[in-house]
Amino acid sequence: MAQEPMNTDLMKSGLLKTTGAGVLREHDLGAEVQLAGWVARRRDHGGVIFIDLRDSTGFVQVVLNPEEAPAPEDVLHGLRIEYCVQVMGTVRQRPEGTVNPDLPTGAVEVVAQRLRVLSTSEPLPFPLDGRTDIDEGLRLQYRYLDMRRDRVSRNLRARSKAIRAMRNVMDEQGFLEVETPTLIASTPEGARDMLVPSRLRQGQFYALPQSPQLFKQLLMIGGVERYYQIARCYRDEDFRADRQVEFTQLDFEGAFWGQEEVLATIELVARRVVADLGHSIGPDPFVRMTYAEAMESYGSDKPDVRFDMKIVDLSEAFTDTDFKAFAGVLADGGSVRGINGGQLGLARAGLDALVSEAQDVGAKGLVWMVVEDDGSLRSPVAKFLSDTEQADIASGLSATPGDTLLIVADHTNTVLDVLGRMRLHVGQPDGHDELAFVFVVDFPVFEVGEDGALSPAHHPFTAPADLDALVHAPETAVSKAYDLVLNGSELGSGSVRIHDAAMQAKVFEVMGISDEDAEGRFGWFLEALRYGTPPHAGFALGVARFVSILQGEPNIREVIPFPKTQTGADPLTGSPSRVKKDQLEELGICVAPDVVAAWAEEADSDPPTTDT
Amino acid sequence: MAQEPMNTDLMKSGLLKTTGAGVLREHDLGAEVQLAGWVARRRDHGGVIFIDLRDSTGFVQVVLNPEEAPAPEDVLHGLRIEYCVQVMGTVRQRPEGTVNPDLPTGAVEVVAQRLRVLSTSEPLPFPLDGRTDIDEGLRLQYRYLDMRRDRVSRNLRARSKAIRAMRNVMDEQGFLEVETPTLIASTPEGARDMLVPSRLRQGQFYALPQSPQLFKQLLMIGGVERYYQIARCYRDEDFRADRQVEFTQLDFEGAFWGQEEVLATIELVARRVVADLGHSIGPDPFVRMTYAEAMESYGSDKPDVRFDMKIVDLSEAFTDTDFKAFAGVLADGGSVRGINGGQLGLARAGLDALVSEAQDVGAKGLVWMVVEDDGSLRSPVAKFLSDTEQADIASGLSATPGDTLLIVADHTNTVLDVLGRMRLHVGQPDGHDELAFVFVVDFPVFEVGEDGALSPAHHPFTAPADLDALVHAPETAVSKAYDLVLNGSELGSGSVRIHDAAMQAKVFEVMGISDEDAEGRFGWFLEALRYGTPPHAGFALGVARFVSILQGEPNIREVIPFPKTQTGADPLTGSPSRVKKDQLEELGICVAPDVVAAWAEEADSDPPTTDT
Predict the structure, then answer these.
(1) Interchain pair B183, A585: CB under 8 A
(2) Which residues in B442-478 are b (16+ Cβ under 10 Å) and which e?
């Protein structure tokens, strides 16, 4: 376990141990030590027993010679993996030839004078040695054993360190840590709120916060000019690989601030976390890109800029094309765009797989072209394209021999989306050795649906860049909203907020929220805006995603101490679960009749499993 | 506002301000500054307007001379209290005679070259000057204005600082910060759990944690030898003056630890918080007292040891008394005890009020005696007591002329409880200038009810001091549980935990929890105990109570950013509240029919107020 040694001041005052197993070195030779930890490995060499003793500081080898009677024979021979033991002994040099240079303590061993079993262990449901792939369900069910493994243990330490780094920056910058409530008011928009029935006020509910948004704005109104919090937030929906029903974010807000101050602060935070987790990034300011630019060049508002492979608009090359597929798309107002996938070296089957892949992500088709040594293009559609068109493609995509070019023709949104995904498919590097941060700015106020319907892209407290533009051309209006992206993942987002009650009313109107509706949903907040609200702006940064990328972990569950599954269940404790009727009665609620009826049907087919 | 200046690095990068109002001093004379904040006061002196500009760093006086046109006349004369403004100006010396030595910025003022109103304010619901007592309901409804006041602002900063102090000690001592889940499994004992219906698993519920108890024990099993967390916890009941439906505690646990290591850590934490909040306490170790001693001498497990006034057992003096009230009590196995209330100087009415007070807290009666100058006792019962008895009382209570002695005869528990309360009533100092910390240790395993029934005094994972004693004499058995008490308030509690599955099973048995019941409630935890659980111990320290005592605040709501009322309501946002039926339907729950019926009845008599 590559961990730093713990502070051992308090450990020295312990009844059971005087030092950590993993901190012993040659300068400790001759020292009498008292260790406590777990039996990670056990080897019997001609009567002498060797154990690797593990604790939170690492490992050390312990030698148990039955002739020196560190414990009764039956205890020594009964020792099993993961028994929790205490060892009193002396640090000595390992015999020549047995030094282990891979282990920090590999030059020494502890000869036991006494061994005491503090508690025994049943056989483990899976090995802890890290050499075996273990089913995630089993790992979560025995998370307390899983976290004895190096991987989880390292991730928990990294997470703790990341959060400390965030707090240190915030403290240094004069931010005040304020705890906002987690039992808050549900709003009628809160179809997504998690609710908490009140016992003292039966039939009434609290909601759990999806973010501390309105409370942090209230803090700005309250004159707390710099606020931060490591905040727990909740969302009972949309379980994708990288979402959890509860999650943690660094949440901050600054009064008398605009976008620049927020972005500068985020960069300070991100750099500190990166450095404290042992990574490095260059001194250049984080790349900044508008939403429009990100979509146009990368087909995504979360561009992975570790590699270039920009999307290029080739439409002009086909203004007069005879190739009907392209001509039709252009006539319909669509576009033809492509990426240069580089030296993919794919055989025909591999190229066809790319076509299927593109179709899977929403393309009607994908044109591939391989650049031959003589510069000509090999492609199923080459014969339909004129020499000029082929030359324009090659020059537009800076083609060199051996490159694979990928072209999509469709509605522009589809083209960008598909090429953005194909770009990641063929170009995205494995792992996270490189860290490429991007600020995406100038997000649109509205997302335009397939049917042309507008839906707000951010919460309605986000300031528009230009109120007139919002009113007169809402579909192209831009807001003062920004995201931080790392290696193609969104780490967080924020915005400049509306600080003026009249502008807020206007924005509600454009968003189709009636005065009455606004009053019912946010009346108390609209009132607060009327008491000298300062201009303010802020951000929220997801802790788990950031740490998982820095740790090279494929999903955020790896950096969460006790995660839930993708469907929100905890295999360890069995939550969520049915509860007794009388427990609900005390809260003044009941399970809906249709749900109970469904249970009854299940019970008819299956044996009942829970008392309801 | 007596606050430290903020770090101004980032403020300098701000668009709207270059420095804080409260940090300007004579060494800034001549500096051109850009300030932003709120109009705290406004005075019109012959056309020249003076405002006190307030921001999070404090106040400074700003001079607006209309002749120098810092803003159009109508803007200058339209300025109102709590308008949010930006001022560009020059720092200059205040004219002789107008220096204000009470204000940190009192030697200087800022002459405005320009003033801009960033946002206006409606007239306030209450003044912010701190000179008026304001109804707490109104303060909570406008908490964002309330926190512009010095009192709340100071308390929020103190709270933030206290939490940082706690974290600093934990970090220095090698504790790992780990976030435990807040959506956990409800247990059938969880009649007190707050529940959260799951949307994805209709009819199933998460529970909010009353503490991270089992998760922190799992972390110990998982090999995290030192865990801490500033944890949000929940309890929807028992709204006393000093409880909230959600609250925050410093939660920590150590493996291979016993009571001594935990108490040493708590003392480190408490001393750091005290120091960082600007208080001082002596170097002596915190007083330590057994539960039995605390009850016997102070009539409370939360002894306020800022003053002595111990309870004295006087029973022996009355072995052969003729005073029937005392004789009867002693014959019934009760006792006669007293305290020396000192120089109370009460007239007859005051003494009678003490008797009523004692009856209010459960005494059948209270005997008062005033020591006359000649050492004799003046008391309504004096005539029933022999000279020897009177002399024994006087010597037992170390009486000196002018002292008021208070005596109660009853069941011993009642006597101790009543005298403990009377002791606080007559002896407890106002305010918190002195800080008296006490560790109360050796708590009993069971509380004995009036009917003799035993109920566990702590959670069932608390280690008994002696398992045999627990089995054979449960009513007097002692557990390895301990509390930290400050000035008569419990700040937190903890214990050594059971780390052995067999002992845990035995303790469940003594507590009357059947195997089946234990399995249903804690099966997953009992299984975890079987995998090499280390000995461990921990503690939880309430943040709000500690900070409120250090800040001299009478209730914890004063140190909570957005507190709820004693009945769990938030007058600001209106939570908890009724929600729409379809919102509940999505969660697979409904409001219980009897609650809906009660609403209908209300609606018949009152106009309906909420759409349900």
Answers:
(1) no
(2) bbbbbeeeeeeebebbbebbbbbbebeebeeebeebb
